[in-house]
Amino acid sequence: MIIYPAVDIKDGRCVRLVQGEFDKVTVYSEEPLQMALKWESLGAEYLHVVDLDGARTGETQNISITSEIAAKLKIPVQLGGGIRSIEVIEKLISKGIKRVILGTSAVKNPDLVKQAVEAFKESIVIGIDAKDGKVAIDGWEKTSEFTAIDFANKMVELGAKTIIYTDISRDGMLIGPNLAAMREMAQSVDAEIIASGGVSSLQDIKDLKETGVSGVIVGKALYTGNVDLKEAIEIGKA
Predict the structure, then answer these.
(1) What pLDDT was estimated at residue 194?
(2) What are the beta bridge partners of residue 166?
(3) Pair 19, 207: CB distance under 8 Å
(4) How far apart are CA 94 and CA 36, in angstroms?
(5) What is the pLDDT of residues 206-228, one digit of tens each?
(6) pLDDT of 85 above 90
(7) 129 part of the active site
(8) pLDDT band at 69 (very low <50, low <70, confident <90, very high)
(9) Distance between CA atoms of residues 108 and 105, nearest Å
(10) How far apart are CA 170 and CA 19, in angstroms?
(11) Which residues share a beta bridge with 129?
């Protein structure tokens, strides 16, 4: 199981939100690149980056920063937030981003998913953010009519191989992940599932490993010191 440290970028800075609310923001670093390099130096195998400005506006906002992160790191980087067209996907991959995450655009434009998967194969990841079991869109500010599992299976039918599943109610709360939801997703969907939201301790990572997910994104708990990245990676590899 791979541990993905998260670097969330807003206004050019490395931040964390609480439950995706843009007015509940904590700035952890003025330099997202330095934070990314720190996680790499501690043994991270993969980095998870979110362009929060992009997620909210629907247009990628921090390409210069995310491109620099991809260029300077030796480990692969996956990026989400405001990616809405095949042209932007192409540009990001050409800048060294290993995997591109489609969230809102996957809900609103399944044809884009089909086209992107055909062109870029495993480089396309679907981000499913759930609020009360329903898929949220537009920077988590709206909810669609799809249930998370039904939508995940639709994406697999279109060729998606990896899904990032976030429980918004847990995100940034340090109250533990929604283990039942993660287990259900891992058992119900024929794809690699990366769990996200609520990780607050090394025990949470052990518990998630037992649900069958293939990866875990850890954000706030790394920044507060609740989770030691090296120890988390050891658990993932064990």
Answers:
(1) 98
(2) 129, 196
(3) no
(4) 20
(5) 999 999 999 999 999 999 999 99
(6) yes
(7) yes
(8) very high
(9) 5
(10) 7
(11) 166
Please give the domain boundaries of the chain with CATH numbers for all domains.
2-237 (3.20.20.70)
For residue 53 the two structure tokens come to 């400005």
Selected catalytic residue, list 23, 53, 111, 129: 129
Asked if residue 16 lies in contact with residue 25, where contact means CB atoms within 8 angstroms, the answer is yes
CA triple 93-99-138, angle to 5 deg: 100
Neighbouring residues of 186: CB distance < 8 A, sequence distance ≥ 6: 193, 211, 212, 213
Which residue intervals of the chain are DSSP H helices? 32-41, 52-57, 63-72, 86-94, 104-108, 110-120, 148-157, 179-188, 202-209, 220-224, 229-237
Is 228 considered catalytic here?
no
Task: Please state the rounded mean pLDDT for residues 95-101.
Answer: 98
Q: Give the 3-state secondary structure of 116-151.
A: HHHHHHHHEEEEEEEECCEEEECCCCEEEEEEHHHH
Phi first, then psi, for residue 180 (nearest 5°) are -60, -45
**2-10 and 215-218 beta bridge pairing:** parallel
Structure confidence by residue, pLDDT tens digits, 152-200 = 999 999 999 999 999 887 877 777 899 999 999 999 999 999 999 999 9
Q: By the 8 A CB rule, do 122 and 161 touch?
A: yes
Inter-helix orientation angle 179-188/202-209, to 10°: 30
Alpha carbon distance 136, 131 (integer Å): 6
User: Per the structure block, which two tokens stand in for 153?
Assistant: 């299976």
